[in-house]
Amino acid sequence: MSHLAPESVWDYPRPPRLEASAEHVEVELGGRVVAASDRSWRVLETSHPPTYYLPRAAFVADVLRPATGHTWCEWKGQASYFDLVVGDRVVPRAAWTYPTPTAGFEEIAGAVAVMPGAVDRCTVDGEVVTPQPGGFYGGWITSRVTGPFKGGPGTAGW
Fold first, then answer.
1. With contact defined as beta carbons under 8 Å apart, do 151 and 132 qualify?
2. Domains of the chain by range and CATH?
3. Contacts of range 139-144, beta carbons closer than 8 Å, 24 or more positions apart
4. Which of 18, 22, 107, 129 has the most Cβ atoms closer than 10 angstroms to its Cβ?
């Protein structure tokens, strides 16, 4: 359970806000920690649990493999993707980055976000994250944040 004050995702702004975080964040895949950092950024947007971006240096060598294709975010710009690779296990397009994000998001240039539902486990200050519903968005649900959250059935128009 987080020691930080509770937050409702309905109090987050739109357009989203970027904020630095000193929470300890870990990503596990294939039975090992593939990323860990006490320095990250949270993107906070109305109706969405936070998406965490970690410095690229937080990832172990060779776990990020550039993937083909790009997407466009109206707030952050063009995203590039990574497959996550541990041994013989490959999780396609499970992580992404904004190499040259738009104004207001420059701090996350080159930082990497991970889809928590695509890996074995993500934690924030030791608490296991629940992935944002729906599989499209990359939000990290902890006891710190309350919903309802966009992403599940019937929320497409939110």
1. yes
2. 7-144 (2.170.150.40)
3. 139/48, 139/49, 139/50, 139/51, 140/49, 140/50, 140/51, 140/52, 140/116, 141/49, 142/2, 142/49, 143/1, 143/2, 143/6, 144/2, 144/4, 144/5, 144/6, 144/7
4. 129
The b/e string for 26-59 (b: 16+ C-beta within 10 A; e otherwise) is: bbbbeeeebbebeebbbbbbebbbbbbbbeeebb
**Ordered per-residue pLDDT tens for the chain, 158 residues:** 557 889 999 999 999 999 999 999 999 999 999 999 999 999 999 999 999 999 999 999 999 999 999 999 999 999 999 999 999 999 999 999 999 999 999 999 999 999 999 999 999 999 999 999 988 889 999 999 999 999 988 888 88
